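pasting for ref
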Amino acid sequence: MPHTAPPPPRMTVTGATLVIAPPSHPRHQPPPPRREPGPYRRLFALPGTRAFTAGNLLARLPMGMFGISAVMMIAGQRGSYALAGAVTATGLAATALVAPWTARLVDRYGQARIAVPATLIAVLGSLSLILCLRSGAPAWTLFASYAATATTPNIGGMSRARWTHLLRESPSAHHTAMSFEQAADELCFMLGPVVAAALCSAVFPEAGTLTGAVLLLTGMLIFTAQRSTEPPPSRAARDTAPLRGVRPLLALFLPLGVMFGAMEVASIAYLDAHGLGAASGPVLALQAAGSCAAGLLYGTLRPRTLPTCLAALTAAMALPWVAAATDSVLLLGCALLLAGMATAPTMVTAMSRVHAATPPARLNEGMTLAVTAILAGIAAGAATAGWLVDHAGAAPTYALPAAAALTALALGTWWSRPVTRTR
């Protein structure tokens, strides 16, 4: 074996004396400082979080698929967009009535025990809709079948409840988790319609509904199988008293829903008037993409107050109105991107107020009530915007989401004070 000569000694001077310093060796050098993992890496290092998040995303994607799939399927089979719109509107109304009760049962008896059978009922409703269309059944069967999908559990609320259960002692990590959930909402509602439209157009009209049903059931089974992260059921959830602390916030979520519904209808009408038609999807997706990116970034920053977020949202929602007046699709796309970037921080901060106002034992119910208020606002905003488009044109209709954001700012500023948690 060859002999390796030791490194030559180093000379150093101490005072007026020349001494031999001990040889240096790489292994005697201090190791480089370890880089601190980012907030999202720390979040998903918790046991079980990756598994329930995977199921959560699978089950959440169909939330953006079912509506457009039903419209394309019914209109294609029966040749009536009016019927398709009425059926989906009935399903939305049924969801507003049924979802809070489903959420209360989830809080009372546990996620796995309630969510799985509720999902099965919803999946059977989707399959029944397909069979009724294929067999030429009366129109009322379409309404009944789609109404059965209202039992779909609020997967976003259940996921947020798990994070709240796991991160009780870490407010900063909880803020990061809520930001991630909002970004996941935006991602799924951005990708869902695109996937559904592609399946219904390229495969067969029922493909979007079938795929959504499979994803919903598979994701819910994966999600509920992660029992180690599931919040325990609470007897306090049996309390049927109204969530008084949440009521003012529901009034805040209504204009936010109007803003979302009106913005979508105004943008579709504006882009259609400029000859984009079916190619308007990428432009519409810019708002959701901006919100998704801003949500992930907001999770790494210090939370802002609700009035601050609402003020930024109000300013951002005026941008599409200004851009539409210039008659430039490019400027409108940029304005939608910026408007979306103001959306996620506002929703994360508003949802955190719901957390503060809701007893822990009824958290899923409180979150579902907020979502229900948003859905009601979306329906009202879409209907009002449609009337404005017919009577005033697409560009002036952008004033409606701007006005809705201003209303939300007024309400948020008025009610922005410490919330007393009810027990």
